Amino acid sequence: MSENGKLLGGKENKAGTLSVLMGAAFLMATSAIGPGFLTQTAVFTEKLQAAFGFAILASVLIDMVVQLNIWRILGVSGMRAQDVGNKVFPGLGYFLAFAVALGGLVFNIGNVAGAAMGLNVVAGVPLIPGAALSAALAILLFLNKEMGKAMDKFAQILGFLMIALVFIVVVKTQPPVALALQETVLPSKIDWMMVLTLVGGTVGGYITFAGAHRIIDAGVVGKDHLKQISAGSINAISITAVMRYLLFLAILGVVVMGHPLDPENPPASAFRIGAGELGYKAFGVILWAAAVTSVVGASYTSISFLRTLAKTIEANQRYWIIGFIVASTAIFVTVGKPVRLLIFAGAVNGLILPVALVSMLLAAHRKDIVGDYKHPLWMSIMGYIMVAFTGWMGVTSLTKILDMFK
Predict the structure, then answer these.
(1) HSE of 102 in the Cβ direction (CA atoms, 13 Å)?
(2) Does 9 reside within a domain?
(3) Fewest CB atoms within 10 A around its CB: which of 46, 162, 305, 342?
(4) What is the domain range of residue 28?
(5) What is the pTM assigned to this prediction?
(6) Domain-embedded: residue 2
(7) Whether 56 contacts 245, CB under 8 Å
């Protein structure tokens, strides 16, 4: 049964299914496109210039393997990741739920800060009122009687807005597109750690589960929906890829001219240099949209990991999500961005993907989880390779962070 009782049971509402899948794709994509996404893309473009195109392409291919595995297995099972984790290994689901909720809360503080900074750039709104206004808008979505549909529409509208604004800036900065395309396929230099960092920022932590849990909540589950679920997972990665590549081109047009980016705010300086004050204002809108959609995605997904672990959360999901947003905003307003906690949460976040992915791959061969579904061998093989790569990166990152705290 879906959240509105229309998608499953009786004649399937195909338009409703498509709407949910598009909403899930944009929810996942806009969850990935946050303040960190913008900064990361600007810094890496300045470092590798046109060769960064290959890093984007390689990360997108890896993202697709990861996302296909997770969405298909969760979609067929009809269970959320923490429930699958507990069936694979008792207690694993509790670890995933705790890690995702902790990471989601800490990163949400950064998302609230990004939304406040975006409003400050666009209209000069002071940071604290800007944070409160952005949080209030996100809360209104979850007060809506049909919060799932409201969330889907919100993610889609702001997702298209971000892509359109970045495209306009690309036209303005006139990047060397031919060189970028050439280096995307035949790079002059490759940085694999950068590739893996992009993967972590796109499908790491709670992000890949944002869309997967959304389709489960809407009842788009089971083998009958496998084709649509697979297409939805690819669409989600494609949306982030388009945004990342356009952002890369916009910034490339600035850095190839020899303009250094401001290390305090690399993407903002790129937009200002490339498109003047209007470009800077456009960046403010993009930053706000990226941050506020990430607030929505992080809050929804974090609580979705906790809701089946306690009956009170399951029964009062929307109010727990609102409380999550309020807590994130309150911490930002009173404490600011807790840098050391953000760093530590980032390291823990790096461990969520390999642990969650291996639990999904093990679940793919459990009849009590997926029934008679046969997971493609190539997906399993590629999935385990991704577990090894992301696990190595996660452990390396955590070790470095722990050394910093000594």
Answers:
(1) 18
(2) no
(3) 342
(4) 14-405
(5) 0.90
(6) no
(7) yes
